[in-house]
Amino acid sequence: MKRLTILLVPVLLVAFSAIAWAGQEKATDLTIVTGEHWVGASVEQKRAYLFGVGNVLEIEQAMEGKDYASMRGRSIVPVLLEGLSGIPIADLVMQLDKFYSDHPDQIDRPVIEVMYLEMALPRLGT
Q1: What is the 3-class SS of 37-89, one letter each residue?
Q2: Rounded to a whole number, what is the largest CA-CA distance in the chain?
Q3: Model-level pTM greater than 0.70?
Q4: Contacts of 114-119 spanning 24+ positions with Cβ under 8 A
Q5: How many Cβ atoms sit within 10 Å of the Cβ of residue 114?
Q6: What pLDDT digit, counting tens, does each position of 31-44 carry?
Q7: Among the listed residues 64, 86, 87, 88, the one whose alpha carbon sits nearest the alpha carbon of residue 75
């Protein structure tokens, strides 16, 4: 039953989103959040983004179940979950703010890429 619930939530979210989008004249493309978006966002928007990423990672981990470790090498999920484990959301916001502040030439890099390559991998020693 728990696995059914885990699968049902994302399916319902997609269905409701599709219904909402159907009412629009033109559907918008998926936006990859970059440093440009990040530096222009409010603290609440930054926190919401990180909570969303965290929820997706947790759902992916739950769906893999005992095979979670086998995702290594074919998914960023284990690296992000393990590499960012224990870091409070407020600290992640500060670290990302600092990264983009210190590297204005990399403002076009996606936030998820920075989280993976600059934050999670170094904490894992890889």
Answers
A1: HHHHCCHHHHHHHHHHHHHHHHHHHHHHHHHHHHHECCECHHHHHHHCCCCCH
A2: 48
A3: yes
A4: 114/35, 115/53, 115/80, 115/84, 116/76, 116/79, 116/80, 116/83, 119/83, 119/84, 119/87, 119/92, 119/95
A5: 20
A6: 899 999 999 999 99
A7: 64
